[in-house]
Design goal:
Elements lengths: L1 E4 L2 E2 L12 H8 L8 E2 L22 E4 L11 H13 L4 E6 L5 H4 L11 E6 L3 H13 L4 E6 L16 E7 L9 E2 H14 L3 E5 L3 E4 L2 E4 L2 H10 L7
Parallel strand pairs: 1-4, 4-5, 5-6, 6-7, 7-8, 8-10, 9-11
Antiparallel strand pairs: 2-3, 11-12
């Protein structure tokens, strides 16, 4: 089972993968400014209890963390300490967050982090080769117990082979959603599949995106079918 926890909302765009961010799209629809970062009403969700005194999120859940922002965002520096404390307190939960700001990790860690909290899984986004080459050496060296790479939205062919190894628990690839989505090509995705298979690293083709190109043909794929079509490709890999 899984649940989403967004302790704060809003972000700033820092790389090409941010151009058509779904958070910005949704906020714009309701007239909200996504750059106004704010603490949410769910900030204390991991430690919230019901009337019987039982945690609202039971032990064993996977908690997708900060999916409407970036956990390492500068504007959240004043709130992150409490967030770490809740993660430490709820050892029976597994927290997972995705970041484009892995370069900020060391300055954002709690004092007792050590080699990482066992229940925290951190994913680094690499949407193109430049971002892979910039971020992955930092990511590999960082003290994190559980690490994965996210190539989403995938904006071009990426060679991850110099970086893949036992440290990586998985690679996830996917296209971009929304009306302004940039193309995602099957050959880019399949290249990542082959690289992961060669390195013995799990690979997941999560979604095609809204504009998918295969065998020279472009396809407009509605949101409800993007995950389905990715699964039909049958190119996920598990060692």
């Amino acid at each position: 089972m899984s649940v989403q926890w967004n302790p704060w909302h809003g972000c700033r765009k820092i790389s090409p993968g941010c151009a058509n961010c779904y958070v910005f799209r949704k906020d714009e629809k309701y007239g909200r400014d996504s750059t106004m970062v704010r603490k949410t009403k769910d900030f204390y969700l991991p430690v919230a209890r019901d009337r019987q005194g039982t945690f609202k999120i039971p032990a064993g859940e996977l908690v997708y963390t900060c999916f409407t922002s970036d956990f390492l965002l500068e504007e959240a520096d004043g709130w992150r300490r409490e967030a770490w404390q809740m993660m430490r307190l709820r050892k029976g939960l597994r927290f997972l967050f995705i970041t484009k700001r892995i370069h900020r990790l060391l300055e954002c860690l709690p004092l007792d982090w050590g080699e990482g909290y066992e229940n925290v899984h951190i994913c680094c986004t690499c949407e193109d080769q430049k971002r892979a080459d910039e971020r992955l050496p930092v990511f590999i060296a960082a003290p994190i117990r559980h690490k994965s790479i996210i190539c989403e939205p995938l904006l071009g062919e990426i060679d991850l082979s110099p970086y893949l190894g036992p440290w990586c628990e998985g690679v996830v690839a996917g296209g971009e959603s929304g009306e302004k989505a940039r193309e995602c090509r099957f050959e880019w995705v399949f290249s990542l599949h082959k690289q992961c298979a060669a390195a013995g690293v799990p690979f997941t083709f999560k979604q095609t995106g809204a504009l998918f190109v295969k065998d020279g043909k472009s396809y407009r794929i509605p949101r409800r079918l993007q995950h389905v079509q990715a699964r039909k490709a049958r190119i996920d890999y598990s060692p």
